[in-house]
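pasting for ref
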Amino acid sequence: MPTDPAPVTPDAPSPIHAPLLTQQWLDLAFIHWAVEPGVVAPLLPAGTVPDRHDAMTYVGLVAFRMDRVGWLRLPGVPYLGTFPETNVRLYSVDAHGRRGVVFRSMDASRLIPVVMGRVGFRLPYLWSRMTVRAEGGTVTYTSSRRWPGPRGAYSRITVRTGERIEKPTELEHFLTARWGMHNAFFGRTAPPAYLPNVHPRWPLYRAELLTCDENLVAAAGLPAPDEPPVSVLYSPGVPVRLGRPARPAGIPTP
């Protein structure tokens, strides 16, 4: 691992003045399981290793609504740029100490953004039937995969939101305050790149997991969870700016 990873901070380390993309992430459910770093290390891009908190790393299942994706400084698109999404993600760090996420799957309900994400950004977007429904103090997220597969991979998640978290724990910051992603944007033979993001500090709430019937984690090449998650959080969301990919140099030492 890097000898001096960047600290985990609730605020973005630097601004993005000229964004590549703008969007909003709304009605998010963050569900996390602890795993041994060796389980996920083979699934990360070359040049990154699992990021750890108290010697463990984490698998995240994050369901939300993407809202009004826009290019550069153009207004966000209300229809094609607005859709439910559910991600399976891992936690990574590179030789520069930059902490990020690695997406193993990104189910979304709009076909055109899925194709653009796969072709233009080489991200693991998948086309699925999806809904997000809020009723009273609960939010239910459903998905059923259409293409490319495994066809029929599914999730049904219901959370009940609780009290606002005034002072998130170190682990809660570690799981949510991730200021970039690592991905092979430039092709499999090129070094992975780091795409930064910035947004206001997360408004986080305690949440109770009422339903979690899914096989997305296993479909993403990870062991299916056999224990309750160690963390369940809810956020009403934040506006987000994404910067341009920067190629990391060097490979961290395990």
